[in-house]
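Technical note accompanying the year-one report. For the benefit of new consortium partners, we illustrate the data format agreed upon in the data management plan: each record pairs a sequence with a structure-token string. No post-processing was applied to the example shown here.
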Amino acid sequence: MDVDEKHDRVIVHIDIDCFYAQVEMNKKPELRDVPMGIQQKNIVVTCNYPARARGVGKCMYITEAMQKCPELILVNGEDLADYRRVSAAVYSTLCETGSPVERLGMDENWLDVTQIVKLRIQELEGKKPELRGHTFGELSCDDCECTNNLIVGSIIAEELRNTIKEKFNLTTSAGISHNKLLSKMVGGKHKPDDQTVISPSSALNLLTDDMPPKSVPGIGRRTVEQLTAVHLDTLDQLRQASVENIVEAGILRPQALQLKKMAWGQDDSEVKMTGRPQSLGLEDRFMGLYNEAECKEKLSWLLDRLTQLIAEDGRKPTVIKVTVRDYYKDKLVKKFHKESRQGKISARLFNLDIQGNLAEESKIEILQITLGLLGKMIDFKDSFHITLMGLGVSNFLEQIEKKGSIKNFFISPKKEDGLPQSVPTAVVKRKNLFDESEETSSKKCKTLENENSPEKVDNVLHKALDNDRSQKTEPKSKSNNSSIQSFLRKQESYAVINPKNSNTENTFLKIIESKEDLGSEDDEEIISLKCPADYDPEVWNNLPIELKQELIASNKPSTSYKVESSEKDSLDNNSTDKETDENAYSDTEECPEGVDQQVFEQLPKEIRSELSKSMSKNTPSTKIPPKPHGSSSKASKPNKGNKKDTGAKSHSILSYFSRQK
């Protein structure tokens, strides 16, 4: 197979040397020059280089490590909080370069410094750069002049390593190549605290013929088992094998092609910026849990640890998962076997206090949920032997509104990139667009009417918002004690503007006010949906247009509006307006049939009156004679196939208060 066609990238792989051990040595400098290992359960997960010089290795049992180095000092490393914080700080520092950075675990990062290299070469003005660090094999390329780029990349890698050492007192090792695979593999050739450069011509010197496929990063245990089944035990055999032979092992064709490329040292995968994690979780292994009380205690311990991670992350999860391993089930299947169950959970349970702790009632409720998930995998009435338990959360929300917020009725709970899926485009903090003079508003309206481009409409509206932020908002009126009005007060809201999916003329509702109302001699159109006096302006701006129209029509029946809209059903019809003009609102409205009495009594008088009039449209004007004694008090149900219009549209606010039959 031919070598890479393009060698125009420069990829740097940075690995923090014995990361856990260095973090502990920074906390206790006296451990720096003595053999020291990080203990998790009965295993030494990593150790410093003095301990490695005495024969202690990573993931070695403590008994074996102590035999090799009796003076080994063990530090408990089961709490990963400090390691995560340092890892995040190093990642943030690397991101300051402006280059794409991809995390690989807590101690490794890839950087694509191609653009920085191009700028450096321009600054050199033809001068030959000086290589920093070591080279693996000969630094040459028969197909292009990429070696000069790699040399400049070695200079940038050294600068990055020096920055990390100065800021965090951490030594690092780096690999520099034209792809991610080679940069990672060559970075370990001169550890610790050093770096190595490899050119494309030396790829096969790094990936020797007798090397097993599992030595290549990205080829996992399951893939190795499939390759072994078709007698592909070395990289040379994998290179010589046909794609069809690899597919016979049960590997899909695209993956088979990728495996052959990796065997030749080729990797065209991009360095992708690492986003926020899609899930958070942790597991714990132990000798055994044998009853429900022990399981609940372990879940409580895991939840406390998990709460710390959620507090650092800042988001609220909506899915929780429990993972468990039962030793008795392992014996049945004769292999390591884990089970997991997950379920929905209210994000409000994770409202943490200032110290980042859960409320006691929230913790109790979460433990009940997790114990229920565990009960789906373990029969507490039967014997069991749990040796592993994990707890994780996912499906995060960026922001959780207050429990009484009216936004919860109109915004989808599922979010993507921190925004609800129902949000089309820009989200703008909005007060009131219409506190300006009539002349300014008229000019804005004319501009919107004359511009057909949605982008221009968006720009004009954003300018209007900027002007209004400098002005004071109108004072709020006194709150009403009714329960439905409480939803329309003192809540945070945002207005969503999306002019891209419709023409300018159809995007905004135009309302023409009379000369007396405007206090002006010019009779011009303005864009207005002013908040009634009884409602909170911020929450009013978040209501759907249909609800605004209906509430305006019911709240100001005597105001003469001329309404223009692209939709036929944008406002109540003229007959409804005439009825509200002729009849004053009554404080003693009777509850219509089919409406909940308690909800009706708490409604504002304007909405009660409107609801009564709308419900009475389908009721005969003549009074119904009293029923004879003994007749059934239940009204006969209408035929479902011949339902009549109740006077309220499908999007009307009246539909929220009608009792479902």
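Partners are asked to follow this layout when depositing records. The radius of gyration is 35 Å.
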